[in-house]
Amino acid sequence: MRIIFAGTPDTAVPSLDALVADHDVLGVLTRVPAPVGRKRVLTKSAVHQRAEELGLPVLTPTTLRDADVQRQIAKLGADAVAVVAYGMLVPPELLSVPRYGWINLHFSLLPRWRGAAPVQYAIAAGDTRTGTAVFQIEEGLDTGPVYDVVEREIAPTDTAGDLLAELAVSGARQLSEVLTRIEHDALTPQPQVGEATHAPRFSAKDTHIDWREGAHVVSAQSRGWWPAPGAWTKLGETRVKLGPVRPTDTTGLAPGQIDAGKRVLVGTGTTAVELDQVGPAGKQWMAAADWARGVQTSDPRFEVGGSDA
After folding, report:
1. Does 109 show up as a binding residue in the annotation?
2. Residue 98 marked ligand-binding
3. pTM
4. Which amino acid positions bind (6S)-5,6,7,8-tetrahydrofolate, per UniProt (predicted)?
């Protein structure tokens, strides 16, 4: 199949590689170079860099509503546009330009977790299963009919970063196979069934730990927001980021109360959790024990409730 690939972050790169191996990729759509790091160095997206390594032509429009951009896309003569975490809305007039339309690999079990951050929300919400769905893009946000779904159990130690990296690889194979089956008229998309939930871009308020929640809830949230942006809390007026935390059987600590013995434990609404990595404001990540040794109070406690950040 003749394909245009649309994607931006590193999680989209495995799909680009799979499609280049199995299909005829005519060109790549990706986001414009963006400032990265403290020095704000203008950097091409991961997909952009990989496309150049593969010798593919790259388009970086700031909007798909521009008539010249639409003519460029149509001129390529693709049978389909394969989309993975592109990050740009497709206007209605472009959806029907390729013969098979725009086909999206989404990292959730649609209609659960439509939106930009499905893996993060699935873990943070305590879901036990997730997966990937390949669907037909239509005007609504992630509302189109689904060609194929692959499920995967969420383990109690999974982080968003690890799980997303795994789904990116397995989903790449799935997307390529689905496109082959579509080309041979061997697959018909089915309407989404079930209650829709949404995974919008998250804010600091979403990632703030409320220690009144149970240990497993706090653990799920810490893993869902790892490695970026990282869950956070406050010690006095100082913001502290937290890596993934582990539930324990330890009781007797009030919510937010810190016990820095052999392990660094924090009380929750049920049992305590054990801290692993801590990121103090303006400093590098460090082992929780190293961080705890620098805490200047005899009875350290994290701020208990959530906040507006």
Report:
1. yes
2. no
3. 0.94
4. 108-111
